[in-house]
């Protein structure tokens, strides 16, 4: 029985680049020290790694550092973590702060189990999510080995964040997503980001983000460079209340609240220019 259950929950083997049946190599690749490869893609700023046996916060920061060196960005560089990418930015702040010239978090997803959150505040925000999303985070935390099986069962509560049908109260967010779906961009980006298989590309992100962390971001010491956090008040994915608590507790974070903003802040006209000017033209 144990063998049978093991086969049922075992994810499909990752589709390694350069392997039989794996995705084709179509662009310049950079080999990292451990043999993994980073490849760039015609879509701006999009990179992905070959499958590695184990990912954790420290390895994500190391990958960013090696990528920056391979791209010859210099001794210092900027890191921007958007939405789910926020955990990579936090990892860089923890593990490679001496390499950063500045950092920004844009509606960054948080871990509801960070010790720095008051339990009543995190519980309230946690239960604002759809039931399927709540269960997704529970499985990622308590039984990550079950995650691949869980999300593929149609009879279980469906996670809206994976299906792409989360309720978005912000009009710009809703328009942005609808356009991406109708134009095919949403599917195209999803296919690109999961070329090595959903488990390796998507489920591992969830496991790294929502399992128990090796550190609490709210306990990090003040860095020698500015760190900015932007959060929309009408974000249907990331509760603003938790970001406010982080900014209040961590005095060195410069908090920018966007009153009419949602989750997709780059959908706001002129926001990208504002972000770059804030990062690059800071005193």
From TrEMBL:
<dbReference type="InterPro" id="IPR029058">
    <property type="entry name" value="AB_hydrolase_fold"/>
</dbReference>
<dbReference type="Pfam" id="PF12697">
    <property type="entry name" value="Abhydrolase_6"/>
</dbReference>
<protein>
    <recommendedName>
        <fullName>AB hydrolase-1 domain-containing protein</fullName>
    </recommendedName>
</protein>
<dbReference type="InterPro" id="IPR000073">
    <property type="entry name" value="AB_hydrolase_1"/>
</dbReference>
<feature type="domain" description="AB hydrolase-1">
    <location>
        <begin position="56"/>
        <end position="266"/>
    </location>
</feature>
